[in-house]
Records
---
Amino acid sequence: MPFNGPLPAILVVEDEFLILSATAYDLRDAGFTVFEASNADDAIELLEAHGEIRILFTDVDMPGSMDGLKLSAAVRERWPPTLIIVTSGKTLVGRAKLPVGGRFFPKPYSTGKIASAMQEMLA
């Protein structure tokens, strides 16, 4: 069942600039409002400043104070309604490591499949 209404804001967290830019562009093209961060610290700042963010899409392997899995856990604890999708090209993440309700997509991923998963999660 597709999500009805305007698509919510997404926060994409990715330290590889080209992947971040391409993913954000494709998700905007799919109708989402997209915020971008290159590390977990910037992501937390954006989440604090923009209460309209409903979905976190984060890479696992990032420099900084925490990786994507720790960021996901922090977001689940602090902003429980936020939907979470985790991705990685280096690590396969099983359900036990994901926050409750979270999903995992290995890289390389299709942004179309990510957008569809987001719409399914919102339904």
---
Amino acid sequence: MSTVLELMEKRKKAWETAKAFLDSRRGSDGLISAEDNATYERMEADVVALGKEIERLQRQAAIDAVRVG
């Protein structure tokens, strides 16, 4: 389960970094450049991927617990 906790912390940090990046790149019109948008989308995709891996590991742990118990 420590792997899940480590991934959760990594996801939290990645999300905070992505939000800070987005906030720092907004222009006076509230928009970001196409290049910054592409960077943010990659950052967001990493956060989503980490979330999916966390869910996968949690499901595995739940199945193992039922199978063993």
